[in-house]
Fold this protein.
Amino acid sequence: MYQGPAKRRAARRALIGWFVLLVIGISARSWSPAALPSVTADERMELARLRRDHGLLEAEIASLRTRLGLVERAVETFPGFRAVPARVLPFVELSPRAHSAIIDVGSDDGVAVGFGVVGPGGVFGQVVDVIAGRSRVRLADDPEFRVRFHIDGDEGVAAGGPTQESLHPHLMKEFVDFEVGDVLMTVGSDGRFPRDVIVGRVSYTTHPYRGSRIELAGNTRETNSVVVLVPRGFDPSQPDGGG
């Protein structure tokens, strides 16, 4: 039967339409999630490993930024000392009375026994043992830790404890009436810490003063970045450090 031009064009458009629909249907089935190959167990493990490594890398970058900030602040504030950045390593103290930390710098970094260690909040502790690449730090709340402080023109010595993250006044030159909120700063004449490093804040007062409590400025158990303060001019090759 003869078809006019209009009918032929309509039939052609209908045929093209059905072809397009057919192609779209095939493509949709080819790219649907069900048509994609399934992820293997090895691939899932590799993805989990990459995510874990990414998280560890982000944490290390944050730690490096903290150490860089500590070094920059130390350089500006404590010109008489060289700041050696360090990372606090995982460590379990076996003694129930001792409070210690291990850091990843040691004698090969110019660190020696007796040097002061500062964290983001202030006084962190003092180096008591050193080997190449490692040092043990006596934390500021250790019962054996001592640090000289000043407040309102008066001076004294604070000792670690008796509780975690705290100190207490050990010796005072003059009677001082502490008030809650008072901030104690280092004297800076003992060679370990420069002057005006924050020791802590008075959180509880008693009379006599030895019962008062000084809360450390930074939580030593949660600190992962510190700097060791090395006196400028210190020479580890000399018996007395060359100071």
